[in-house]
Amino acid sequence: MNTWSLTEAAEAVANRQVTAVDLLQSCLAAIDSHEAAINATIWIDREGAMQAAEAADRAVASEAPLGPLHGVPLAHKDMYYQAGKVSTCGSGIRGGWVADRTATVLDRLHQAGSITFAGLNMAEFAQNPTGHNSHHGDCHNPWNLPFITGGSSSGSGAAVAARFAFGALGSDTGGSIRLPASACGVTGLKPTQTRVSRAGVMPLSFSADNVGPLVRTARDCARVMSVIAGHDPADPTSAQEPVQDYEAGLSGDLRGVRIGLVSNPGLAGVDDAIVAAISAAADVLRQRGAVVVPVELPDMDAVAAYGGIISRCEGAAIHARWMRERPGDYAVHLSGRLYPGYAIPATYYIEALSARGPLLRSFCGTVFGGLDAIMLPTIPTVLPTLEATSMEIGQPGAEERFMAVSINTRPFNYLGLPAISIPCGFDPAGLPIGLQLVARPFAEARLLTLADAYQRDTRWHEALPPL
Amino acid sequence: MPNLEQPVAAGQADPFLAEIQAYVATWHGIIVPNDPARRLAADLASTIKAFEAQRARLRFEDEPSSFEAALRDMKEGA
C-alpha cells in the first residue's frame, strides 16, 4: 500500500479495503527502514497517531460520515502550529517553543479526517532552497543521498518520495514547495497568493508566503486544495474568491489549451538533460491536444529586482530581535543572508510593493493574453550536492550555486501566480527533473487539469526511490 | 561601490561595507555576524544597481491594495 497515492489511500479506507491503522503502520515502517539515511523528520507522535487512527477506524465501522481525507496519515513541515505542541520551525532558537494555537490549515485537514503524525525537517526558518539544516541535520535526497532535496520544505519532499507519508504541507516564499517537489520527484503546488490561509503558520515574508501540498499526483493536490483553500477570518489577507471543486475538473482533455514554452535564456534550462526532459513533456501535452508555442517572459529583470527586496526586508524585520540578541544561534548562512536586509531603505521596499500590481497586470496581459499557461523547468540545472552548496563550509562558488537553485521559482512568488511542479524525467545522476506549470491568478484548477492530463500519459510520478 | 571581485573579510577596509555596517548598527543595533554576511552586504551594490535600473520604467502606484485588486482582475474569465 505504500505505492498508493493519497487519494487511493483515502478511497481504500472509505471502501474498507484497508484500515487507517494499516496505513499508519506502513508509513512508520518506511520511516523505521530509511529515516536514518534521509533525516526527513524532526518529531514523530506514534502514540497519538495510533490513537487517532484507531478512532478513524471506529468511525468507519460505525458508518459515520467520512471526510475526503479520512484516516490518511500526513506529516507536515514543522512550522504549522498545533496548540500545546512544539513547533521548531527547523531552528535551534525555537527548539522548545510551544504554540498557543493551531494553524487553520491543520484544523481543516483534521476536520477532513487526516491524521498528523510527524513534523518534518525543513530549512531553518524556511530560509534556504537546498535542505541544509545545521540544527536538525541536513535532509538527504532519497534518490541519491549526497544530493540536495531542495528546500525549504526539504522533509516534505523527501518524506513523500520515500513513502513516509501520503502527503505533506510545505510552504513557498521563493520556491520552497516546488523545489523539493522537483528534486524529490513528487507533485507540489504553490497556490495563488492569498488563496490559502496562513493563520498559525510561521511567517518568512508576509507578502510572498504561501501554503500548499506536496503529494504524489495532481489528483492528490486537488483533493488537499479542496480542503485547505478558501477565506479564513483568522487570516484577513486570505482571498474571498470561491473555491472550485478541483477534482471535478480533472478531465484529461487538453484540446484547445494553449501553453507557452518559456524561451528566456537561463530560465528555459541550462543543462541538456533538463532541456530534453522539458521538450519531451511538451510533446506529451501536445499529444493530449494542447498547442505548445514558444514564449519569452517579459520584465524578468524588474521582477527579480523587486521580488528580492521584499522578501529580504520582511525576513529581516521578522528576525530583528533574535539577530540583535542571539545571532550566533542561527546557521552561518542564515544570519549571513538576513544581515543585508537591514540596510535596504524603506523607500525601496515600498517601491517594490507598489510595482507589484502593475507588473502583474502587465505580465498577465502580455503572457496570458493568448496563453492559458506557461511551462519551464522548476530547476534549470541538474541538482548539486549538499556539499557543493554548503555555505557553512565555505565551498568556492557555494553562494552562487545555492541561489541558482531557485531562479525559476522566485519570479512567480513576486507575481503571486499559482505554479505546480510535477516529475518529468531523471538526470544522469538518477535524480528527478521537475516541470513547472504556471497560470493566471486563481487558475489552480487549470494547472491541476494540465498536470493530471500529463500524469495520465507518463509514469514519472509513480517511480520509487532506490532505497 | 565595492570591488565585488575581491573577497570581503573581517577587518578589510571597504568604504561601502563600512557604511552598511555603521547604518545597520545605528538603526537596528545589529552587528555583522560573520564573513558570509560581509560578502552579501557588499553585494548590496549589485542590488542597488538592479533596482536603479528599473527607475523611470514604472510610475509610483498611488492606489491602495493594487496587488490584491490585480490578482482579482487578472484571473481567468475576469
The number of strands of chain A is 11
Number of helices of chain A: 15
From the structure provided, what is the oligomeric state, counting identical versus distinct chains? heterodimer
Arithmetic mean of pLDDT of chain B: 83
Approximately how much helix is present in the residues of chain A? 25-40%
User: What is the count of helical runs of chain B?
Assistant: 4
Question: Helices and strands of chain B: which structural class?
Answer: mainly alpha
Please name the two chains that share the biggest interface, counting residues whose Cβ lies under 8 Å from a Cβ on the partner chain. A-B, 54 and 40 residues
Largest sheet of chain A: 8 strands, mixed
Strand content of chain B: under 5%
The CATH architecture name of chain A reads Alpha-Beta Complex
What is the average of the pLDDT values of chain A?
A: 96
Helix/strand-derived category of chain A reads alpha/beta
Helix content of chain B: 40-55%
If you compute it from the alpha carbons, what radius of gyration of chain A comes out, rounded to the nearest whole angstrom? 20 Å
Spell out the key features of this protein.
heterodimer, A: about 475 residues, alpha/beta, Amidase signature (AS) enzymes, eight-stranded mixed beta sheet, three-stranded mixed beta sheet, about 35% helix, B: about 80 residues, disordered N terminus
